[in-house]
C-alpha cells in the first residue's frame, strides 16, 4: 500500500533533504509544497496521510497551515518541523494544529523515519477503527430493524457453556 506524505517548507534544500531522508522507506508517495497555501491545495487534490510542515514560512506560518489542515482534513496526521523552536510556537502548534510530533532543525534522520512510520501506522489504525465503527453502527441498525419486524428475534438464549439454544419449531 502506498502512503501519501506532504512536506511543506519554503526552503527547497529542506524539501530535498527530507525527501532524501524518507526515500527507500516503505512505499511513500511524497508531495511537496513551498507554502501553506500550496500545501492546502495539495491536501485538496490528494488523499494525504501525513503532513510535515515548517513553522517559519512567508505568508502563512506553519501553525496557521496545520490548524487549517486539521480543520479541513481532520484525519491527516500532522508533524511540525522548525529551526526556530520556541515553547510558544510548540504550544501553538500542539493546541491549534493538534500535531503528532514536533521536530527541531536539524532533525535526526532515524528519529524522523521512525516517527513518520509511526504516524502512518496511526493513520491506518484510525482509518480501520472508523471503518469498523461504521460497520458496527450499520449492523446495529439492521438488528434494530429486524427486532421491529420480528419482536424477540435478537434475544438469544445460551446454555452454561455459551452455546445458542434454538427454539423448537412446531411441525418439523
Protein architecture, described:
The chain is α/β, with parallel strands linked by helices and 172 residues long. It has a single domain, classed as 3-Layer(aba) Sandwich (Rossmann fold), CATH 3.40.50. Helices cover 49% and strands 18% of the residues. It is built from five helices and seven strands, in the order βαβαβαβαβαββ. It has helices at residues 12-22, 36-45, 62-72, 87-97, 109-149, and strands spanning 3-8, 28-33, 50-54, 77-82, 101-104, 157-158, 164-165. The strands form two sheets. A five-stranded parallel sheet has the order 2-1-3-4-5, with helices on both faces. It has a two-stranded antiparallel ribbon with strand order 6-7. Strand 3, helix 3 (62-72) and strand 4 form a beta-alpha-beta unit. Helix 2 packs parallel to helix 3 (62-72) and helix 3 (62-72) packs parallel to helix 4. The longest helix is centred in the last third of the chain and has 41 residues, at 109-149. The protein is elongated and about 75 Å long. The N and C termini lie far apart (52 Å). 26% of the residues are buried. The model has no long low-confidence stretch (mean pLDDT 87).
What is the first-to-last residue Cα distance? Answer: 52 Å
The general outline is: elongated
Average pLDDT for all residues = 87
Low-confidence stretches: none
> Which CATH architecture is right?
3-Layer(aba) Sandwich
Largest sheet: spatial strand order: 2-1-3-4-5
Strand content: 15-25%
Structural class: alpha/beta
The CATH topology: Rossmann fold
The helix/strand order is EHEHEHEHEHEE
CATH class: Alpha Beta
Tally the beta strands.
7
Helix share, percent: 40-55%
- As a whole number of angstroms, the C-alpha radius of gyration is 24 Å
Main sheet makeup = 5 strands, parallel
**Helical run tally:** 5
